[in-house]
Amino acid sequence: MRTKRRYILARILPYGAAVDQKQLYLSVIEAAASLLGDAAVGLAQPAVVYCDAGYAVIRCRRGAERDIAAALATVTAVGDDRVSLRTVAASGTIRALRRRMRPIRPIPEDEEITIGERAYAVCRYPGQKVDLIEKGIKHQKRFFFSELDLEER
Amino acid sequence: MKITDACIFPYPDGDSTVSRMAIEAGELGFDSLVVIGDAGHRLSCAVEILQGAIITARSIKEVLRDLRDPAVRRADLVCVDAGDLSFNRALASTKDVNVISKIHATRQNAFDHVAARTAAERGVAVEISIAPLIHLRGMKRQQALNRYADILALHRRYGFMLTLSSAASSILDQRSVREIRGLCGLFGMTGAEVNEALSSVGRMIEPSGPVGAVR
Q1: What residues contact residue A118 under an 8 Å CB cut-off, 6+ apart?
Q2: Which residues on A lie below 8 Å from B27 (Cβ)?
Q3: CA of A122: how far to CAs of A114, A147, B17, B18, B97, in Å?
Q4: Which of A75, B25, B154, B164 has a CA between 20 and 30 Å from the CA of residue A11?
Q5: Contact A59/A46 with Cβ under 8 angstroms?
Q6: What is the b/e burial string over A40-66, where b = at least 16 CB atoms within 10 angstroms of the residue's CB?
Q7: Does B138 contact A at CB distance below 8 Å?
């Protein structure tokens, strides 16, 4: 008989992080297996069914959503990139979760700031949030500021 | 009931400033934060910023010396890292110590029923940090869960306060109240106990009691 499923919507932080769906799945499985054990994860059957626009939808067996949500809180990296998953909602359908998705886009601006000897690109987001991303090709360092911090500099 | 994250380490110790962590904390359901380090100005935002201080010492003598430091005296909340059994017992009875922290890194019986009773009498809280549950793996996380379960059993028996903290140095380490509830459920903490622990800092800083007359 077809098992009943639940879907968990999680926001991916930091904003703008390019996360590969398969890598995310491996991170979720690793975190869940480490926390709950192989037997519990085998029964829960977690899977990443959607990963785009700063959101991920994780499917699991009905009844296991609390355990999987706790495991999502222990995900700290995807691949080599530091990432955090924040559970937004759980639902029986992906359609209901899509209504909760509100993509957060940076306010377009071309600004630069120097901290120490390094240059950082400024990305402003709604809610007075400012991300500073180091200029470079790989493994850029990030700082998380607010509008107030930039004004004080 | 004020929901408080009992310990964060903002910029320059971490990569996120106090104001940014306060904005995120507000979205995650928190009413106040305890900042270890420079809290800056107490910003006018929805989240209250409290100044915290952490003391790491090997003996009670060092703790008493550090408690006299002006920066520690100014702090709203004073946390001292736990040590061995005799140290923790003495700590629980030390004046001006609010919270015993890093209990997950201590040995099995480092916090026993004597320390628990003294902590309950003196109003000293024990900190439960979710950082080991998030960042550690394998045996170290198992040990942390085991220690927290022991502390929870003592808390239920003797009634001392618990505080909950994320020990976050970045917005990526901060977790919502619901996620903290889920993580604390791993070692048997109920939703009501989590709520009580999250509000204990508020109760410590503003204890409710009869109004006294000042002459």
Answers
A1: A134, A135, A141
A2: 127
A3: 10, 11, 15, 18, 42
A4: B164
A5: yes
A6: ebeebebebebbeebbbbbbbbeebbe
A7: yes
CA distance A21 to A58: 11
Report the pLDDT averaged over residues A90-97.
95
Task: Give the pLDDT band (50/70/90) at residue B81.
Answer: very high
Residues 6+ apart with CB under 8 A from B27: A127
User: Which residue from A14, A6, A33 is spatially nearest to A81, judged by alpha carbons?
Assistant: A14
Query: Is residue A120 within 8 Å of residue A132, measured between CB atoms?
Result: yes
Of A13, A76, A129, the CB nearest to B135: A76
Q: What is the pLDDT of residues A100-112, one digit of tens each?
A: 998 888 887 778 8
Q: pLDDT tens digit string along B174-191?
A: 999 999 999 999 999 999
Name the pTM for this structure.
Answer: 0.91
Query: What's the whole-number average pLDDT of chain B?
Result: 91
Whole-complex ipTM: 0.91
A144:B178 CB<8 A? no
The CB-side HSE value for B17 (13 A sphere, CA atoms) comes to 22
* Alpha helices (runs of H) in B55-190, residue ranges in sequence order: 60-67, 70-74, 85-92, 113-122, 131-135, 138-158, 177-184
> And the tokens for B45?
């935002």
DSSP-derived pairing of the beta strands B4-8 and A5-13: unpaired
Interchain CB distance below 8 Å, B171 and A35: no
Strands A129-134 and A118-125, sheet pairing: antiparallel
Q: For the beta carbon of residue B198, count every other beta carbon within 10 angstroms.
A: 26
Does the pLDDT value for residue A57 go beyond 60?
yes
Q: How far apart are CA B34 and CA B23, in angstroms?
A: 14
Q: Does B1 touch chain A (CB under 8 A)?
A: no
pLDDT at residue A104 in the model: 83
